Fold each of these.
Amino acid sequence: MEKDDNAISVKLEELRKNISDIDKKIIELLNKRAVLVKEVGRLKQKSGLPFYSPDREAKIYKMIEELPNGEFPKKSLKNIFREIMSASIRLEEPLTISYLGPEATFTHQAAIERFGLSLHYIAEESIEDVFMDVEADRADFGVVPIENSIEGVVHYTLDMFTNSNVKIVSEIYIDIHHNLLSKAKSLQEIKAIYSHPNALGQCKSWLKKHLPNVPLFETVSTAKAAKIAEKDSSAAAIASKAASEIYNLNILASGIEDKTNNTTRFLVIGKNIPKPTGNDKTSFMFSIKDKVGALYEILKPFYDNKINLTRIESRPSRQKSFSYIFYVDVEGHIQDKNLQDALSKIENLTVFLKILGSYPKSTYKN
């Protein structure tokens, strides 16, 4: 028996040595990569090119997706490369990312999902502040929510694009899982529940069943609710698991969202439109003349050019009563000839037309 134990110990030591040798090679290769990254950064700075390239990022993730299945999960590979790219961007230029805060909101999670942990982050109190940070060059990029699979579109984000010159440069999808957090030890101790109105709406059936008589209070974010719960042991917050760790709260119930397919789409905003990747999305907005068949005339050129519309949303215009602005997402890049043809044909049919951005389409899978 002792002989077998010795043999296992020897084999383990041998395997661990092999792993250590591989780890050293990985570190050596990462340092070689870093040298090349710095050279790329110098060339970008010299030519005035942006340091963050969503098209380049999309190609790396596509490369990972197309690899043969191996022992290492592709999702984990993506997470590893996200941090490699985050550290690489920091080597080129220490970028600043603004997001709808405070810390531990789902927007914060989306920002880290896209940019990794190596960059500098600014938590803002409003979506307007995020737009202003990017416009005023206080931040290189901003991250804002745009729509939820249950609650629908975030109208304030859409409205901000009307007068802002920022561009959409990327999109992120995050699965939303809500938790009931509190300093309390049980549901019976809860006297008030705080959260963002979208989170309250996404958990209303659970709340009605388990805490029907507890009053609900709206906050500007789920993390703000967690801050309130941190200071009041009779209060609870609906927020992320990360918020429980940051604000030292107990998780009284997890996964309390009413529907499991609860997903939020976020946008990354910046100053420049990324290059085409071959799998892109373009967003634009327009206002039409008030006449019969006006919307049909606008949509027909996209049908004729075989362009798929993935979303169309209307909002009341702030300029004129009972007039509307339409927001549209289509497949394709602004440099594609068929999309250019469709947009040129509708230009004279609109009161105004504004391109919001062309960017790599997310490969998100629920």
Amino acid sequence: MAATLLASCASGPRQLTPGPHLTVLPATELPPPEGVDPRTGVRVYRVGPSDRLAISVYGVPDLSQTLLVDSSGRIAVPLAGAVEVAGKTPDEISREITQRLSTYVRNPQVSVNLEQSVSQVVTVDGQVTEPGVYPVVGRMTLMRAIAVAKGATEFARLQDVVVFRTVGDRQMAALYNLAAIRRGTYPDPEIYASDVIVVGDSPARRLFRDILQASPLFVAPIVALLQR
């Protein structure tokens, strides 16, 4: 009877199906998003809505202030007007403000620094304890992202973890085996801002939980076999 239950509950790894808007790649070939040097791993920060920027104009304290990027991705800079900043680096924003202020200020020296970031986030969904949207602080990996979401649940299918990523104008996805990563079979992959991680569900574990609750003594050998 135990063998029959195991056979009926067993299933192979899930296969991702490519579509017209989704490119499926092997886990080791999922490229980083644009703005990241694949050789060095250096990440270029691009400003987004709700980020807070410190604008400093040397010698003109009235123009130096901290500004919040609005929902449309703009900031309002005195004399320079509304500046589109979403998707740009602080250096690019600095150059644009410098150009605009040059009409009013002689040889303006403008610096733009990121004071607070809330736009660089990763989404962790599926069978984790606390699904949600979490900030990307420093270097983040798949294992760390799962840990930030308080770890996988008891019903998580660890060999069925999908990472969705937009690279340029292409939507890509790759399937990862979290259990294999924990064993050191292959490296813990890097996770980037705007990635979406989905931890799969194991119907077999739910079935065994239900059977265990119904008849603990009957399924004890099965549970012992699964835990090996």
